[in-house]
Amino acid sequence: MKRTSGLPALLTLMYCIGLCGAWALLYGAADRWWPVSLLLFGPRWMLGLPLLVLLPWAVLRHRLLLIPLGFAAAVLAGPVMGFQVAQEQNGVPSGARIRVLSCNLRVGEVDFEALSRVVREYDVDVVAVQEYIGDRRLTLPEGWQGKRDGQIAVYSRFPLQVGEALKLHRAGHKWKRQTVLPAVIRTPAGPVAFFAVHLPSPRYGLQHLLDRRKLINPEKAGMLEAQTGAREEASMLARAMVDRAVLPVIVAGDFNLPRESYIFRRYWSDMSDASVLLTGYGWTFFESLRGLPVMLAVDRVLAGNGAEARWFRVGPDVDSDHRPVIADVVLTPAG
Predict the structure, then answer these.
(1) Could you give the CA distance from residue 297 to residue 262 in angstroms, rounded to a whole number?
(2) Whether 63 contacts 1, CB under 8 Å
(3) TM spans, by residue (predicted)?
């Protein structure tokens, strides 16, 4: 084994510091500073490319460097890429269970039959879908009720009453679009306030920022910053609508907010989040940014006000860029 020399050790040190810096920025400045927002919604796995050079170099010539490089690989595969260990639950749930499924239909291109099978196989009680375009329908059990408003729809095996949707302007669209569709679902255990959400995406700002010649053009960051402000306002208004509910609350849909996002942590992190009950990455969104694969966890089921999330799964591929998410919410007995 050779003693570590200056250049390999320096490169390894710089890489470890840079990776830890990226980790800290993700949890401190995502959706607050546009370069970190680009990392938040971009191909984070690219931060591991230096390991393709440094690890073989360390194995062949400087094996002591495998220790810091192993630490760097763990940071990358763990918190930077979003790996989590399921949070422990306190006690055994004693209230009535409601099983919720949410799925973004990718402007109606989803395999409706495959999604209908997921609903049946998981014995789902309530379904929320987003980007519902076209006339195709889910094949649901007899007796289900449903209501569609724009591109958001809610379906339930229990009696359903839908309220007025929150509509907001979005980048790339001339007219306001449905952002939150509220409903009251009358379950056997009592009424529940249900909110199907589709919060704005940063897609247009990210695409505008990327440049064919410069790769990233900081001069075009203004649209991403404007979209970030609009996305925060949408979360603020959506959360205000949720907070007006006096019933147990379930919020399900495409939040377009990874857990590291400042917007998510400010407006939604105090609710019972079903996704933290899963060990793994929990990715629900699979897309590419200029040909580079991107995987994110942005679809969620939240609960509060006397309701608590107790179980969570990411469903199979149904020919959408989003995977369906399935969660159990328990209505905790009063008193």
Answers:
(1) 15
(2) yes
(3) 7-27, 33-57, 64-83
**Any idea which fold 96-331 has?**
Deoxyribonuclease I; Chain A (3.60.10)
Cα–Cα distance measured from residue 38 to residue 31, given in angstroms and rounded to the nearest whole number: 9
What separation in angstroms does the CA of 280 have from each of 79, 82, 88, 283? 11, 8, 14, 9
- Reading the block at residue 253, the tokens are 């849909």
Report the C-alpha gap between 200 and 254 in whole angstroms.
9
Query: Distance of alpha carbon 111 from its chain centroid, rounded?
Result: 21
* Helix spans in 81-185 (H): 112-121
What is d(CA 109, CA 118) in angstroms, rounded to the nearest whole number? 16
DSSP 226-268: HHHHHHHHHHHHHHHHHHT--S-EEEEEE----TT-HHHHHHT
Measured between its terminal Cα atoms, the distance across the chain in Å is: 66
Give phi and psi for 145, each to the nearest 5: -115, 155
Q: Are 165 and 152 in contact (CB under 8 A)?
A: yes
Residues in the chain: 335
Residue 1 confidence (pLDDT)? 43
**Cα separation, 210 vs 50, whole angstroms:** 22
Which pTM does this prediction carry? 0.92
Cβ proximity of 315 and 326 under 8 Å: yes
| CA–CA dist 121, 305 (Å, integer) | 29
What single-letter DSSP state applies at residue 115? H
pLDDT of residue 288: 84
Given a cut of 70, the residues of the chain with pLDDT beneath it are: 1-5, 91-93, 172-173, 333-335
What is the SS3 assignment for 38-69? HHHHCCHHHHHCCHHHHHHHHHHHCHHHHHHH
Phi and psi torsions of 289, nearest 5° = -115, 105
Which residues, including other chains, have CB under 8 Å from residue 15's CB and lie 6 or more apart? Answer: 50, 51, 54, 69, 72
